[in-house]
Amino acid sequence: MHTNRHVLLGIFFVSIIALLAWFTLFKTDFSLLSERQQWSVRFADAGGLRQGDSVLVAGMRWGRVESLTFDSSAEANERVHVRLSLDRPVDLYADHAIRIESATVLGGMHLSIEPGSFQTGIMAQGARLRGEVVPDVLKALGAVVSDNRETLSNMIAGLDEIVGEVRDGKGILSRLLYDETLGEDLSKTVNSLNETFTNLTAISADLRDGKGTLGRLLKDDELYNSIQTLATEITKVVDDVRGGKGTVGALLYDEDLAGDFRSGVADLSDIVQRINAGEGTLGLLIRDDKIGQNLERITTDLAEGRGTLGKLLSDDEIYTNLRVISEDLSLASAALREGRGTMSRLLYDDELYMEMERALHTLTGTLEEAREAAPINTFLSTLFLGF
Fold it and tell me: Model pTM?
């Protein structure tokens, strides 16, 4: 039993030594054999950085702060010298950045090194390094609060006043909180929005399934090819128009046609100016008051039934007579088309036409014979009268 206690005590002691050794070797950047790189960086302010704080290179733990010294005789931006100890060498480029930053929001600082980009060129060995201090978030917030104390006080007072008005039932926010009717309306609105979103979901599902016109536009390859063909044809038409082909192309790109169009517009403008000036028949109709009065009298006479045209427009008896005449003419034309009556036979009966033609030939022959026999008849009449 006594031996077991010594064994347990020995194990506990060895564990404690091993734990201490682990923290010493791995948590405090302890290095037994490797050579550490030493840097000196100058700052205007330490910003709360302390000896032993971590050094990060590109966000990775790379070393620790060895010491900090203050040089009152140096320039204002180089008063604090920070000596760094790096586990491994690192190259700095011209656009590098060295900053003292907050490790966490709750406190603690570390020194951050951003090596820069290879394209800017490597810095020479032994070059003077300078860094900057990134303001602590809490300190910056405290400074903002301190500088805007009065504004923040007014804001808090305003918020307190708004809360009081809400409690008293004033304003829209108070109605939203306490008005049951408005709450019900808002609930209905939310339900309507939910239904709308549900409908939109159903519509999108139909579109994915190729349902409806728009769904077919999205899913139907044949319809897509048709639209693509139409687009190609439209492109060809546009190209033809740009090339000056066709009427539209000529209207857009033919300079001679454009000149004729401008000339036509100028002539039209001249005509409108002449009309406005009262020149010509149309100008007189528009500008001459006497012509307007005459037209007004003519329309008045027509409306009141004066004159021949007025009676034709307003006298029912004349209208009736004209209607009877038109009906008689319609009957006569129908009789002519149907072959009834002498006139219709003259127009449509070929046999009667042939008989009339033969009669005319006979009459013509008789007249010719009478004309030839006229001198002989005159001589015989004179001779017999002598006796």
Answer: 0.34
